[in-house]
Each structure stands twice: as C-alpha cells, then as structure tokens.
C-alpha cells in the first residue's frame, strides 16, 4: 500500500499543483470526509470544474446503482460504470454528462430492434479519409454481438446463447451482402440498427441498416445468413429446439434490402485462367484469430482486396460486396487471392466521363491444396470526386 501511495504522489502533485500544506492536509484527512480536487487552468481557460470524492478506506464496496440508476453493464443513462471499488464518485452539477449512446446500445420497437451509435475513428479510415469496408463490417459485427449480450439470453460464448454454450455450439456466417451508398468520414457518427429472423429451418438471418446520425439518412444496408457449428467437432448441425425457443422471441419479419435487390446469384469460381491477378503468400497472424479460434470473417476482405488492381482501389468506390464463406481458416494456413474483372454499364454517368464501372469476382483459397475458403463478388463505381 505504501508503494502505491508513493508512486502516485508525483502524478497528483503535477496534475493538481498541490502545495506542501495541501499535501499535509490530504495525508492527515479523515477517511470519511469529502475532498474537492480542482484541475488547473489549461490554455488560458478561466473555468474550472471540480470532482468530489468520498474516500472509502474500509475495503471493497460493491455498487449496484449510480445516482439511483441501476448499473448492469448493458445500458446506463448516467455514468457508464459497471461497478466501483474503494471510492464512490459523487457527480457534481458543473460536470457535463456525456452521451453514452456512443458506448452502449439500446432496444427499440418492443425490443425487436437493437440500436447502437459509433464515432468513426482515425484508425478506421483509408487513404481517402473515409471508413473502409472492413470498418463497416467490424461495426456490424460489434452491434450484433452487443445485441446478443444485451438480450438476456447470452451464454459464455462469442455471441452464443446459454443453451448454445451448454452444447458447445457457436454461430458461423455463411453469406453476407453489403450495399454502401456513402462511406462516412473521420469523426462522423453513425447509427446502426440490427435485428434477426429465421432463415429456413436451420438458419438465422441478421440484417442491419446504418444511418448518418445527423441526417438520419440510410447510407448502408446489409443482410447475412448464419448457421450453427459444434465448437469442438467443427461440424455444422441443426438448431436445437432449446436454442430456437431462446431466439424466436426476437424474430422480426423485416428485410434491410428488398428481395429483388439482394445479391442471391451464384458466385462463379475464379480459376487461374480467368483471374486477372493472383496474390500469393497471404499468411494469417495471431491477431487475425477471433474468440472462436478461427480467422475472423472480416479479415478475409483485406486479403480479397490484395488482388484488386491498385488503380481500381484508388479511383473507384466499393459500393457492393457479397461474401460466401465455404471453409474455416486457421493460423497455420497460407492463402492465395484471385480476382477476375469485367466492366459494367455505367448508370447515371455524365457524357464527358469515359470511366466504366467494374464487377469483380474473387476467390480465397489454400495455397497448398487449392481448397476454397471464400468466394466473393464486388461492384466498383468510379469516384466522381476524383474528376478534375
């Protein structure tokens, strides 16, 4: 305890400019009294805000509520703490309360829809300063996992329910289709809605829509199909009746993408002869693995784009992508990325623009035996903003 106090003294001294007398007053205070810390003025700012702390030296104290509001780690309107030890923070009225929608989601529409907001960070944008397809896919996945965690049926698995965890079952995605109208920029806030429905007898469909937080305009739509796999045998299996009973109350008969607009066509296999470019030697890293002990499905997008020509990446927007997952990938595997391209008729294109749109077909396969990992299809439209 003495070591911790000595190590902390320089920090408090520097941050709060304690005088020698203040240090003596602080070290000799009654454990039950309140102390006010005042932050120094910064960059000429005249206002100072204070935080009152009620010191508690009587050991661990479990906190169930903050300011009369229950804390459960799912959704808190007030301060986002799931518990506190040794100190109880007393909120001062001069401290502005942040908007915790950016941190924690909430249920909408009688708990059928789960909504969460995110700020696009600097490390989530590409060379054009907008969010990448990988960023969007990661946000979709994060919202889906939080939906399960907040639903009250979550088990101890990665997005699994309690009954699934008991049976060592996990969800795996078989197909996902994403349509992007606009990519958000650094600092933009997006709002994501997600919900689930049945997909045949032994599958589940999960849909998403992404809105611009300020304009409320839908900028991305996505739909996906999921099945259940045994975590140990790595074999697909039927959805047990006990699991169906858990998830069926959340089913919502609604689609993010109109049926006629969903890319449901078969993705043809790319061969060495049809591929315009082949990228070899793609090796998964330890950081590419997820909690289910296989390569995270979002990681495949980066490898797919490795075989897309650089001029397409620079001058075109990826407006649609469909991924069909066919096999797991482990850290020991080495992959190859193949891409074939064909031009598409440009719609609503100015007459003075000679650029064509592209549709690409992709394949990720094992380098040693050519076993297929992912088939994919993407649509690229020329970025009009690059016209000088």
TrEMBL record:
Native organism is: Fraxinus pennsylvanica
Q: Coiled-coil intervals in this record?
A: none
Molecular function, one GO term: acyl carrier activity
As for family, the record states: Belongs to the acyl-ACP thioesterase family.
**Location (main, coarse):** plastid
Q: What broad taxonomic lineage does this protein's source fall under?
A: Eukaryota, Viridiplantae, Streptophyta, Embryophyta, Tracheophyta
Q: What is this protein called?
A: Acyl-[acyl-carrier-protein] hydrolase
Which residue range or ranges hold the Acyl-ACP thioesterase-like C-terminal domain? 278-381
The protein's job, in short, is:
Plays an essential role in chain termination during de novo fatty acid synthesis.
Which keywords, in A-to-Z order, does the entry hold?
Chloroplast, Fatty acid biosynthesis, Fatty acid metabolism, Hydrolase, Lipid biosynthesis, Lipid metabolism, Plastid, Transit peptide
The record's Gene3D superfamilies line, in alphabetical order, gives: Hotdog Thioesterase
């Amino acid at each position: 305890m003495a070591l911790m106090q000595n190590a902390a003294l320089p920090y408090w001294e520097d941050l709060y400019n304690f005088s020698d007398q203040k240090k003596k007053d602080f070290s000799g205070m009654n454990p039950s009294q309140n102390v006010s810390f005042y932050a120094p003025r910064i960059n000429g700012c005249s206002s100072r805000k204070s935080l009152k702390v009620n010191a508690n030296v009587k050991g661990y104290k479990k906190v169930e509520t903050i300011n009369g509001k229950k804390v459960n780690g799912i959704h808190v309107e007030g301060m986002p703490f799931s518990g506190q030890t040794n100190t109880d923070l007393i909120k001062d009225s001069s401290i502005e309360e942040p908007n915790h929608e950016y941190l924690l989601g909430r249920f909408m529409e009688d708990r059928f829809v789960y909504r969460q907001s995110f700020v696009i960070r600097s490390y989530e944008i590409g060379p054009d300063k907008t969010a990448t397809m990988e960023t969007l896919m990661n946000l979709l996945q994060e919202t889906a996992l939080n939906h399960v965690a907040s639903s009250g049926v979550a088990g101890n698995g990665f997005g699994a329910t309690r009954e699934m965890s008991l049976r060592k079952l996990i969800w795996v995605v078989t197909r996902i289709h994403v349509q992007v109208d606009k990519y958000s920029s650094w600092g933009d806030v997006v709002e994501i809605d997600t919900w689930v429905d049945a997909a045949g007898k032994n599958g589940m469909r999960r849909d998403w829509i992404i809105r611009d937080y300020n304009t409320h305009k839908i900028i991305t739509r996505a739909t996906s199909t999921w099945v259940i796999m045994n975590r140990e045998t790595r074999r697909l299996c039927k959805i047990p009746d006990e699991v169906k009973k858990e998830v069926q109350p959340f089913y919502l008969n609604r689609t993010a993408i109109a049926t006629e607009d969903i890319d449901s066509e078969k993705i043809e296999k790319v061969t060495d002869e049809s591929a315009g470019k082949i990228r070899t030697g793609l090796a998964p890293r330890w950081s590419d693995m997820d909690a289910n002990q296989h390569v995270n499905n979002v990681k495949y997008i980066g490898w797919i784009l490795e075989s897309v020509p650089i001029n397409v990446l620079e001058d075109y927007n990826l407006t649609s992508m469909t991924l069909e997952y066919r096999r797991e990938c482990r850290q020991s595997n080495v992959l190859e990325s193949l891409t074939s391209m064909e031009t598409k008729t440009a719609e609503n294109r100015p007459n003075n623009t000679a650029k064509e749109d592209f549709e690409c077909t992709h394949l990720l396969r094992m380098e040693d035996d050519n076993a297929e990992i992912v088939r994919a299809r993407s649509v690229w439209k020329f970025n009009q903003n690059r016209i000088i």
